[in-house]
Amino acid sequence: MSIHLHLRAIAESEFRDDHTWLAAFMSEAWDNHPDEYAAGIADSIEKVFSSVNDLYAAAEVLQPDVDKPWTLPIYGGRPVAHSADADPSNPPLMILEPPGVSQAADFLATVSFDELWNIAGAKLGGWAGEEAAVRQEFLDIHRDLQGFYGRAASAGHAVVKAVWA
User: Fold this and answer.
1) Please, what sign has the CA dihedral across residues 57, 63, 65, 67?
2) Taking the CB of residue 88, how many other CB atoms lie within 10 A of it?
């Protein structure tokens, strides 16, 4: 079974703060994910998104900051509550508002992946493969997130997050 964290940039004026509407929007976006990824308005992380968050948490050692911007790229945002009539099988959803998207983009643009890896890489064990291959996988995810959040922040967009299982 595969599990994905799906991220989709959207203009604040285009979304409704309604779980049922956002679930339908994200479902359609997931169906169109390859095209939206190619367009730079979507990203996804398969299975290891919690470990990516753990990697970013190492930034607390590098940048002790009250705001903890390292929390924003993966789990940042506010949950969108299910309404009374919502389909309970809809995925959990979060919205990261444009100011948070900008903070996430700034964090990703300025943090050193190498320094994060030196602090947390060994703790991210348990993945199949050699350390060099695992490191490369995380570096690729980091670069994708840098680009995605950078574009979303430049456009002034919010980011909607869904977990698909």
Assistant:
1) negative
2) 5
